[in-house]
């Protein structure tokens, strides 16, 4: 697995797109931080300690939704398009090692992107503001787990096509469905359907984290979500291989 | 060793490879020939573990490519058709990745990479990005990846495809250098190339093996006899009568300037030479005519097509 992981990291960091994604994420995240901070400082009366970070984490969630499919779209689609997947299959690597190697690589990039935004609470350390480190930690954990779920979804879709554009578009579509599925409570009613949608809703899982709480059920759900999508990716890869399709 | 036993591969309704069996002994270099769409690449991909056979079994270095896939793949170096590559990696970076993927122990990796670079004459471009290299160099990178770690079995799918004559010659030298120490199965459309490198050829057509032997032996089988070219001083007609009377001579034809003589075995050649000399003819030429691999290949395919027509 380390072979694929290292190769993937080299590929990611030699790509202009990856650097643009990282740069754009950090720039936008910084802008949101400045904007949210200004709002709370100017508006007063709000709970700056908690409110600022809730807003910030929810904005970062949207940024991750926008940026991460751009990282996952080439993972397997490009290997298929170039024909290098055939080469990978002739090395003594299991499909699981290929899938996890690639997933871990983008997960590390996600961790790096999130870690770089830690500069925001560190800036506030220069002031008299109270920094709720526990709540911030919970928020980052939630974003990391949610981002991991986005990445696993993108990786699966990248295994299904050899077009990066289609991979990205489908990933956005699937993630948007997971986001929007519980928006209109009146339309779906308040009974079993809503409960079922809430149970599989990806984005609703973040709310406890951004409020500073860690619900073990949410942690397990997000890890399971990623696990299921990674298992499906392996299935998709295995099925293509069995059928003799690159 | 490579053993292919009763292998069939279907893609939907299409039978790409149909009940194919052949083997390549340890240290043997075998050319795998066939027209486009005959099933060559499909067979080579099954041997290399890219996808499994629908029926039948393939063993590489004693390991079944489906049941013991990892060990089979660890014993194999594969060069795929069209030599796919990671353009964003340097030659050295790519070989380092391939060395890790092939599970070459860390302490042996640097040495293995250096040897693969040297074998394919890539040392001068080792830090260059593969995407910036010429097609010839990219082919060499693909070949160096296959050679990395000295796998006992090499499967090369058209390693000289699209190369200029100089590059073809260079790749041929690399393969010739490996002959004897590795089990090599390679496909090529350049038949003169195959006849120089391969000790044996396997010919596939429409998914079935239609011939399998040493190129010279195939030529003999196809000609149906040993064919000699005989030239004597003076008129050919009296010489033709003498030759026809030699026991074992099956056919004598005046080809205008020389006689074409078909005989059953090698023993007839000496008898024919003695008889002509005894009869007072001055022998100017007595040579065995051999079919080129290209002629053999075309005749075998024609015979196979006729058989299918029946």
Question: What is the topological layout?
Answer:
The complex is a heterodimer of chains A (246) and B (310).
Chain A: H1 2-13, H2 16-43, H3 48-72, H4 77-82, H5 84-90, H6 95-116, H7 119-124, H8 133-159, H9 164-180, H10 185-188, H11 192-200, H12 206-210, H13 216-243
Chain B: E1 2-11, E2 14-24, E3 29-33, H1 40-47, E4 55-60, E5 63-64, H2 69-74, E6 76-79, H3 91-101, H4 106-119, H5 135-147, E7 153-157, H6 165-178, E8 183-187, H7 191-197, E9 200-205, E10 208-213, H8 215-223, E11 226-232, H9 236-245, E12 249-254, E13 259-263, H10 267-278, E14 283-289, H11 293-309
Parallel strand pairs in B: 3-8, 3-9, 6-7, 7-8
Antiparallel strand pairs in B: 1-2, 1-4, 4-5, 9-10, 11-13, 11-14, 12-13
Helix pairs in contact in B: 3-4, 8-11
Query: Biggest sheet of chain B, strands in spatial order?
Result: 6-7-8-3-9-10
Q: How would you sum up the major sheet of chain B?
A: 6 strands, mixed
Structural class label of chain B: alpha/beta
Number of strands of chain B: 14
Distance between the termini of chain A: 20 Å
Q: How confident is the prediction overall: mean pLDDT of chain A? A: 87
Q: What is the multimeric organization of the chains shown?
A: heterodimer
- Number of continuous helical runs of chain A: 13
CATH topology of the largest domain in chain B: Rossmann fold
CATH homologous superfamily name of the largest domain in chain B? Answer: P-loop containing nucleotide triphosphate hydrolases
Largest sheet of chain A: none
Q: Identify the overall geometry of chain A.
A: globular
Number of domains of chain A: 1
Shape of chain B: elongated
Q: How do the SSEs of chain A run, as a string of H and E?
A: HHHHHHHHHHHHH
Structural class of chain A: mainly alpha
CATH class division of the largest domain in chain B: Alpha Beta
């Amino acid at each position: 697995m380390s072979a694929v992981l290292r190769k993937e990291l080299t590929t990611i960091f030699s790509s202009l797109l990856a650097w643009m994604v990282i740069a754009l994420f950090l720039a936008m995240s910084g802008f949101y931080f400045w904007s949210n901070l200004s709002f709370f400082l100017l508006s007063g009366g709000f709970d700056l300690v908690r409110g600022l970070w809730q807003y910030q984490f929810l904005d970062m969630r949207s940024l991750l939704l926008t940026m991460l499919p751009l990282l996952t779209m080439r993972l397997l689609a490009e290997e298929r398009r170039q024909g290098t997947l055939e080469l990978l299959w002739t090395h003594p690597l299991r499909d699981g090692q290929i899938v996890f190697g690639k997933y871990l690589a983008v997960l590390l990039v996600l961790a790096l992107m999130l870690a770089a935004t830690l500069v925001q609470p560190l800036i506030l350390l220069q002031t008299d503001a109270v920094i709720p480190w526990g709540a911030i930690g919970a928020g980052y954990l939630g974003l990391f787990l949610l981002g991991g779920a986005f990445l696993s979804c993108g990786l699966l879709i990248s295994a299904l096509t050899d077009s990066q554009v289609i991979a990205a578009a489908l990933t956005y579509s699937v993630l948007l469905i997971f986001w929007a599925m519980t928006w209109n409570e009146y339309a779906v009613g308040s009974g079993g359907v809503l409960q079922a949608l809430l149970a599989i809703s990806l984005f609703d899982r973040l709310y406890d984290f951004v409020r500073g709480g860690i619900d073990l059920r949410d942690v397990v759900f997000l890890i399971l979500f990623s696990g299921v999508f990674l298992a499906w990716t392996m299935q998709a890869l295995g099925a293509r291989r069995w059928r003799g399709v690159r | 060793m490579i053993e292919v036993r009763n292998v069939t591969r279907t893609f939907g309704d299409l039978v790409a490879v149909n009940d194919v069996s052949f083997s390549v002994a340890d240290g043997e270099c075998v050319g795998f020939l066939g027209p486009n769409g005959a099933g060559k690449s499909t067979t080579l991909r099954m041997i290399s573990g890219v996808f499994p056979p629908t029926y039948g079994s393939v063993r590489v270095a004693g390991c079944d490519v489906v049941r013991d896939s990892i060990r089979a793949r660890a014993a194999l170096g594969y060069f795929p058709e069209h030599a796919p590559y990671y353009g964003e990696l340097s030659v050295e970076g790519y070989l380092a990745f391939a060395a890790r993927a092939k599970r070459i122990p860390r302490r042996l990796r640097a040495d293995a990479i250096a040897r693969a670079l040297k074998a394919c004459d890539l040392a001068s471009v080792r830090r260059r990005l593969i995407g910036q290299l010429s097609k010839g160099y990219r082919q060499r990178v693909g070949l160096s990846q296959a050679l990395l770690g000295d796998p006992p079995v090499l499967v090369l799918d058209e390693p000289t495809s699209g190369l200029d004559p100089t590059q073809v010659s260079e790749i041929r030298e690399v393969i010739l250098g490996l002959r004897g120490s590795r089990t090599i199965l390679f496909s090529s459309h350049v038949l003169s190339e195959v006849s120089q490198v391969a000790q044996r050829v396997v010919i596939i057509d429409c998914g079935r093996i239609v011939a399998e032997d040493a190129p010279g032996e195939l030529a003999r089988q196809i000609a149906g006899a040993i064919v000699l070219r005989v030239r004597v001083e003076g008129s050919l007609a009296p010489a033709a009568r003498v030759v026809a009377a030699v026991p074992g001579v099956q056919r004598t034809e005046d080809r205008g300037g020389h006689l074409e003589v078909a005989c059953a075995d090698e023993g007839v050649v000496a008898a024919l030479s003695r008889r002509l000399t005894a009869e007072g003819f001055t022998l100017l030429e007595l040579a065995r005519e051999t079919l080129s691999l290209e002629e053999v290949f075309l005749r075998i395919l024609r015979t196979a097509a006729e058989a299918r027509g029946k």
